[in-house]
Automatic annotation (TrEMBL):
Protein name stated in the entry: Agmatinase
InterPro entries the record matches: Ureohydrolase, Ureohydrolase_dom_sf, Ureohydrolase_Mn_BS
Reported cofactor(s): Mn(2+)
Positions of transmembrane segments: none
Signal sequence coordinates: 1-24
Species name: Knufia peltigerae
């Protein structure tokens, strides 16, 4: 009876109201233009002084997920003529050389998800009032490199080929630099060795600024090499191997170190031999953020720099989603302030690694931090273009 009455009153209402109000509000779906498409007036569309731009064009949750909603380019395709770029993000989904919890093969996907709210049209920094997306560099996401999870040697070879192809293409703004720079989204830390081989080809040996709770210069004899040569290449030894291969300069530095050594003396001695100076996690309490920045800048001087950020440099409170978490680390704000403070350094390559989203939380603390770190690294590259060795030689 009650439902009958309800029905009747609803029918009455329909009779009283004009028909235009009864019809559900018409929803129009305008064609959504991919973010940052070329609008004919420069590389990117800007969100200011652009009356024609529909708010829907700024949608950060549409389409496929790329890093910071950047355009996807098939950098690894066989085709010669693809869209040019100056800075390329690429994912290295690899986690079979870890000594702790695995899961970083999902890192690139996680970091991209963490970056969904970052995007060119609305990226004016409250600190610098700049928008790094809207400057000279064309920045793209190349997607993930195919890396087998069954054989580390093959997987790292696959990544090496990918780096060669991506950095081997002509840049977009050739008047500024002819070689595109790569920011890798890891992946376990072993992937950095491959990136360093690639930067060596274009820029020669580099100073590494290595943000990490672990030194990662372990002698393979100490970590894994006792089992086999294959086991000796892992995420704790790759910097030792990079030194042996002559890829890095003796002006390198670790920042945020707090994990213990395996033995009393050899590890620290070997670390210095590999070219590193150590800034511990607790040093920040003595010298502050600006002190850490000063130390790092003084250490690398005018050399070309590769910045590698192992997300476990952060305290597990700020980055639980990682394989070998160590308590007593830096906050996200401290790390971002230090990174932004490195402006002016000649950054030729960079990465954010060891992000394992499976251990992250519902608030996505780790992937949000990792995305912002990658965003900062991108800013450093935009601020300071670096010419490759071959161009410098031409000018001499
Ligand atoms: Mn590491």
């Amino acid at each position: 009876m009650l439902s009958f009455l309800r029905l009747t009153s609803f029918s009455l209402l329909l009779l009283i109201l004009p028909s235009s109000l009864v019809v559900a509000r018409e929803i129009v779906f305008p064609p959504v233009v991919p973010l940052q498409a070329n609008n004919g007036r420069g590389q990117y569309r800007s969100s200011v002084n652009d009356e024609k731009q529909s708010f829907l064009d700024l949608d950060k949750f549409a389409g496929l997920t790329t890093f910071s909603n950047l355009p996807w380019v098939h950098c690894l395709s066989d085709e010669k003529d693809i869209e040019g770029y100056d800075i390329a993000f690429v994912g290295a989904p690899f986690d079979t050389a870890t000594t702790g919890r695995p899961g970083t093969r999902y890192g690139p996907t996680g970091i991209r998800l963490g970056s969904r709210r970052i995007g060119a049209p609305m990226d004016w920094s409250p600190y610098t009032h700049k928008n790094e997306f809207l400057q000279w560099a064309r920045i793209v996401d190349c997607g993930d490199v195919p890396m087998t999870f069954l054989d580390n040697t093959v997987a790292l070879k696959q990544l090496e080929t990918a780096h060669k192809v991506i950095s081997g293409r002509p840049a977009n703004a050739t008047e500024i630099s002819t070689v595109p720079r790569v920011i890798t989204l890891g992946g376990d830390h072993t992937t950095t060795l491959v990136a360093l081989r690639s930067t060596f080809d274009h820029w020669g040996p580099v100073s590494v600024i290595h943000f990490d709770s672990h030194i990662d210069t372990w002698d393979p004899k100490v970590l894994g090499g006792g089992l086999s040569d294959y086991a000796g290449l892992n995420h704790g030894t790759f910097l030792h191997i990079a030194h042996e291969e002559g890829l890095i300069l003796n002006s390198s530095a670790h920042a945020g170190i707090r994990a213990p050594a395996v033995n009393k003396k050899h590890d620290w001695k070997n670390d210095r031999r590999c070219g590193f100076e150590i800034i511990t996690a607790r040093d920040i309490d003595k010298v502050g953020v600006s002190g850490v920045i000063e130390k790092l800048k003084a250490r690398v001087g005018d050399t070309n720099v590769y910045i590698s950020v192992d997300i476990d440099v952060l305290d597990p409170a700020y980055a639980p989603g990682t394989g070998t978490a160590e308590v007593g680390g830096w906050t996200t704000r401290e790390l971002l302030s230090i990174l932004d403070g490195l402006e002016g350094l000649k950054v030729v390559g960079a990465d954010v690694v060891e992000v394992a989203p499976i251990y992250d939380n519902a608030g996505e603390t780790t992937v949000l931090a990792a995305a912002e770190v990658a965003h900062s690294l991108m800013g450093l590259m935009v601020e300071t273009p670096v010419k490759p060795l071959k161009e410098n030689k031409k000018e001499d």
